[in-house]
Please model this.
Amino acid sequence: MTNPADVQSEETQKTQADPETAERFIAEKRIGERIRRLRLKKSMGLVELGKHTGLSASFLSQLETGRVVPTLRNLARIAMVFSKDLSYFFETEPTAIFRIHKQKDRVRLPQTGVEPPTYFFESLGYMVPDRHMDPYFAEFIPMARTADPKAHMHPGYEFLYVLDGELELRHGDQECTLETGDSVYFDSGTPHSYQCAGKKAAKVIIVTMHQAPSAIPLRAVGGGAMRPLGGEARTGGGSEKTASVL
Model:
């Protein structure tokens, strides 16, 4: 007959984590590194952090380098200094974003809604999901000026840098010509348009910064119907929100 005390002892052993497992868990959560990042972000030294927590600078140093295992009481003291919840040290850290976009893999797309297109563009960030900005390489083609270029607008901000050639930019009531090496930053919620201003193609880097859509409905600009932000064009590497920003 099985001794109940033996069963209870075996169950207790199953639920108890051995020291090696506990230390491995601490190491995986990189608690020491998280403490160090919080401290450096506040430009705080070990001695100053020690004064706030009641822990010695030498202990905190060992804690940051993983030579000692923190207790929940010590972590709670540190968390309070930085206005963090204790769970901050145990939450899974987001994976750092790092994506390389090879030139040979990019897809060249024409300007939408205009025939013939006045420029072609390539997304430089199509492989990054949920991105907060959209970088593009654009090439503006020299064309006969028979009509004003098609204007558009979208929530957020836009940055342009001219790599080569000349680019004419219209932004609301303003008009300017950008030359090689020139750059401009503007509110893209204002109707704007651009076209090549020279005899050779203008090559430009364009970065659009996202912003929550305005409650004001989009209206027709330059004789063309506005497309809502978020129109998608497939680019081989994934879904692209490009139609309304370029």
Remarks:
- The first strand starts at residue 108 and ends at 110.
- The domain at 16-89 is CATH 1.10.260.40 (434 Repressor (Amino-terminal Domain)).
- The radius of gyration is 28 Å.
- The CA atoms of residues 33 and 206 lie 36 Å apart.
